[in-house]
Amino acid sequence: MSAGAENLERLLDGRQVVICAGSGGVGKTTVSAAIAAGMAARGRTVCVLTIDPARRLADSLRMPELGNEECRVDPERLRRAGLGGNGELWAMTLDAKQTFDDIVEREAPDAQTRDTILANPIYRQLSNAVAGSQEFMAMEKLHELHRSGRYDLLVLDTPPTRNALDFLEAPGRLARFVDSRSLQFFRASGRAGFGLVGRGTGALFSVLKRATGVDLLSDLAEFFNAIGDMSEGFRDRAREVEALLRDEQTTFLLVTSPRTAAIADARFFHRKLEEAGMPFGGLIVNRVREAVGAMAGPELERELSVLLDERLARKVLRDLEDRNSLAARDARNIELMRGEITGDTLIAVPELAGDVHDLGGLAALARQLFEPEPQTGAE
Amino acid sequence: MATLLDRRLVFVTGKGGVGKTTVAAALGLAAARAGRRTLVCEVADQERIAAVFGVPAAGFSEVEVEPGLSAFSVNPDDAIEEWLRYQLRSRTLAGLLGSSRVFQYLAAAAPGLAEMVTIGKLWELAQLERKTPSAAPYDLVIVDAPATGHGLALLRAPQTFAEIARVGPIHRQAGIVESFLGDPERTAVVAVALAEEMPVSETIDLERRLRSELGLGLERVLVNAVLPDRLSAADARAVEAVATAGSLAARAALESSLAAHAGARAQGAQLARLRRGVEAQTTTLPHLLTSDVGRDDLERLAGTLERKL
User: Fold this and answer.
1) Chain B partners of A329 at a C-beta cutoff of 8 Å?
2) How many CB pairs under 8 A join A and B?
3) How many whole angstroms separate alpha carbon A327 and alpha carbon A291?
4) % of chain B surpassing 70 pLDDT
5) B105-163: per-residue pLDDT in tens?
6) How far is CA B261 from CA B198, B238, B250, in A?
């Protein structure tokens, strides 16, 4: 399947940021953690930023549930799991709301502005409830850690979104959000008591008022007034995040499954990355079912009927047929992806028995990622 | 099946990758078979539902994919424009406002506006008296909703908006939609899950958050892609006893059968954990071991749903 497979270590050499993207349910979080663990075992100081990891995985890394702080995974436990090396593995769970609050704390010019923002209904919804704020804050945290210079490599596990792309637009959205013109509009309208804001704008404004209600607008005005003095900082940061995403030290890995529906997702994602000018590193196809070295047929059925009884032999054959048809489907889909999307930068990871939920499982996954065995099984 | 299909609006959510779209489509098929005028509606840029039925998607318009069953894809931009049109009762004014910078600022700034108009549109689709001129009514609207977190954000949008627009037209509409969503006679939330650790945990969490954050119950969990367990415990022992005998091929076959058995047992353990963890009833759907989900597979799933719900 992947003889002469891409070497992940070589792919990541010289990179400082790896962003693992893909639709939900493909094992992105565990793959991100295994990449980080694998690179740490190869001497790098690595931090993996994850979002909502499985409890047992988080426990196995001894990651605190909240707090938004990175913490180091005990090197002795890594060594025992076969992930020893002279690097360091750090991990953190992203807390979007906390990250947002931290920015306000840090950037607000004074305590009163800070409190106004934190209590503003628009802000509360924005930082808490709204789809997209996680993506937004993941980028923010990534940028912060990158600037700290503490790590050789940051691995970001992106939030699962249907089209896997919201986070690409996060910096731009932030910039639009605090766009000076929208800011001026709402600040002006706030000060003018929603009346005297220039003729053309005034007419539009009254329509807007009809459509939305007046207090929504006054909350917006309050919010923009309060955040106005911070907007320069926001815009600068949005530009820096954008630059970081396009930097040659950054790479995007697309994590996907071999299922048919995932091909369309992968194709779509790859195209979007190219359109956005983001550096695509490769495709990781996770949980691939490999063919068993046997085909159902009369000869095998005879042999099994001797070993077992006929009834049981038939059951075993049906299990075998299921397995091989799934493996054939996976192999076909991988070839499709290789042909259409990635060329050689595709790493197929065989399905491991059971969920990956401890360091031993991560070590096994890391081995598959970094030292893939060329497949030898019969067709 | 009566209870679920007698609602007007059914949200199908669950962790990413569990097969929501397929299950929503099969549920739609089952509902249409049961005589309901049914619409299956997705909330995303990618138009997948129509394709599942082998019909080209038609953007922001309802497409009949077979008698009694239609498909539709809500995209926020179109929904916002339609909402403005209705709101201002003037196409000209709506066009003016919709294309103005000011409104774009608002849309970018007002958190959750896209979710609000989306759920407003879903509500509209589920009304027997449609606001859309000359639109046909549906008995049942099935929503192929976004994955858990974003799905919750969608359901929460009316609440969010009722809070940030404390009075005025948006507040009023948000209230109407919210009470429709909160009425268990008319609205239900169904979770699709897999019998694996993460999806099970997320489903348990979903039910808890639905209740605590939105005061909604979870109607049912549909556990998708459950593998057959062909071996009894005694069978497995018999297979194990000869697992190292025979030819290479026989050994590989025996091993794959034992692996299938172990996989099915692991699923069984997760299923038991799910059943302990949620109050909602659970229903299992078989793994479609055939390759790609085709029309036959949908029929099979719909048949299972008809039988089991």
Assistant:
1) 291-292
2) 229
3) 5
4) 92
5) 666 556 677 788 899 999 999 999 887 777 889 999 999 998 877 788 899 989 887 77
6) 21, 13, 17
| Minimum-distance CB partner of A162 among B44, B93, B166 | B44
A331: nearest CA in chain B?
Answer: B291
Does the pLDDT of residue B88 top 80, yes or no?
no
Counting residues of chain A whose pLDDT is more than 90, the rounded percentage is 30
pLDDT digits (tens, 9 = 90+) for B40-62: 999 866 677 887 888 887 778 88
Inter-chain contact B97–A211, Cβ cutoff 8 Å? yes
- How many CA atoms lie within 13 Å of B2's alpha carbon, on the beta-carbon side? 0
Classify burial at A141, counting beta carbons within 10 Å of its beta carbon; exposed 0-12, middle 13-18, buried 19 or more.
buried
Lowest mean pLDDT among A167-181, A234-248, B249-263: A167-181
- Smallest CA–CA separation between B115 and chain A, in Å? 9
Task: Write out the two tokens for A176.
Answer: 């639009």
Facing B169 at nearest CB: one of A213, A264, A353: A213
Mean pLDDT of all residues in A131-155: 84
pLDDT (tens digit per residue) in B185-214: 999 999 999 998 888 988 999 999 999 999
pLDDT at site A265? 77
Q: Please, which residues 245-284 of chain B have a Cβ atom closer than 8 Å to chain A?
A: 245-250, 252-257, 259-263, 266
Q: Do B250 and A294 touch (CB under 8 A)?
A: yes
Contact A182 B255 (CB under 8 A): no
Distance CA A64, CA B229 (A): 38
pLDDT above 70: residue A1: no
Min Cα distance A370 → chain B (Å) is 25
| Per-residue pLDDT tens over the stretch A170-201 | 556 555 655 555 556 665 555 544 443 444 45
Residue B246 and residue A323: Cβ atoms within 8 Å?
A: no
Maximum distance among all Cα pairs of chain A, rounded to whole angstroms: 93
Rounded-to-integer distance, Cα B100 and Cα B8, Å:
36
Q: 87-146 in A: which are within 8 Å (CB) of B?
A: 121-122, 125-126, 129-131, 134
Q: Is A160 on the interface with B (CB under 8 A)?
A: yes
Confidence grade of residue A70 (pLDDT, cut at 50, 70, 90): confident
Spatial separation of the C-alpha atoms in residues B149 and A63, rounded to whole Å? 21
Q: Does the reported pTM lie above 0.90?
A: no
